[in-house]
Amino acid sequence: xxxxxxxxxxxxxxxxxxxxxxxxxxxxxxxxxxxxxxxxxxxxxxxxxxxxxxxxxxxxxxxxxxxxxxxxxxxxxxxxxxxxxxxxxxxxxxxxxxxxxxxxxxxxxxxxxxxxxxxxxxxxxxxxxxxxxxxxxxxxxxxxxxxxxxxxxxxxxxxxxxxxxxxxxxxxxxxxxxxxxxxxxxxxxxxxxxxxxxxxxxxxxxxxxxxxxxxxxxxxxxxxxxxxxxxxxxxxxxxxxxxxxxxxxxxxxxxxxxxxxxxxxxxxxxxxxxxxxxxxxxxxxxxxxxxxxxxxxxxxxxxxxxxxxxxxxxxxxxxxxxxxxxxxxxxxxxxxxxxxxxxxxxxxxxxxxxxxxxxxxxxxxxxxxxxxxxxxxxxxxxxxxxxxx
Length: 389
Hints:
Blueprint: E1 8-14, E2 31-37, H1 57-62, E3 69-75, H2 81-87, H3 90-107, E4 111-115, H4 137-152, E5 157-162, H5 166-172, H6 178-182, E6 187-190, H7 209-222, E7 229-234, E8 236-243, E9 280-284, H8 294-303, E10 305-307, E11 312-317, E12 326-332, H9 335-349, E13 353-357, H10 367-388
Parallel strand pairs: 1-2, 1-13, 2-3, 3-4, 4-5, 5-6, 6-7, 7-13
Antiparallel strand pairs: 8-9, 8-12, 10-11, 11-12
């Protein structure tokens, strides 16, 4: 029988929440990704040779199990211009890649995670810079990754955080580009969260099973091997303002979806600038719950519903105060919802791993990490047994 690697369990560790649990809770973690270094730094002729991070790679290693890979994430949401500058031509790609290689050598990192999340368009600036002006990025993106692989060599890890919404995936991740992307990276971290955001017009799960399967299927059909895809988990909560009575039977056909789903939201971003209109919100489990929604969140925790069809936990609060007449729609993973994703997504699709944004965001209880780790441990044990056969 062919050997099969145990499941990857990747945790992003962020500068916003640099909280690391005690060693016993890190047992199943295989990779830690320190987020972020800005992409523009690597376009400079002489970058700061100290390569400052909120936590050094050496210190990170000391806080996790021996053998845990420590990587550095470059980019992040809204960080697009530095990547576009880097990808423009062969010379700029080489300079970027060589600087990244210098950083990896200097810090002792095991590799890098490229968080150019929206090559080809649909990023934060999509209203200011239309997608037509970014179409060239779709073909330049694989070339940038190839330059990185050439500079880093075969022994260092390269991963990429990639979009989860099909309308975003389609811009740069197609059957024409995915094979060449996979030739340079070790794995893709598919962001199967924020699947509902301010660009949507109806309520749905931001990190549900059906949406996750839809995301993964796009990459699989484009040529990405399942064993090199990682399913994303969100260690944070999202909520959306919904006009009062938007979820009445008149607006949601009876029997089409459970009550609270597929309800019209009204505009959540400025149609001209794309700016957030303040009708969405979110917070990590480490954060204080915003006072205006604290009572509603308590109700969501106690009285939410798990949607078997869509595979997600949600709650519609129609008894709100201080919301200017709006209802509140909540979407987040409970520990139980996390466990349910393994047989229906990870195992069903034969994925190579999982990841979460982010580790410290789940502090101080780390309830979601515990749920994820319990299921990962099963997969890692199965993989180890198969390796011995």
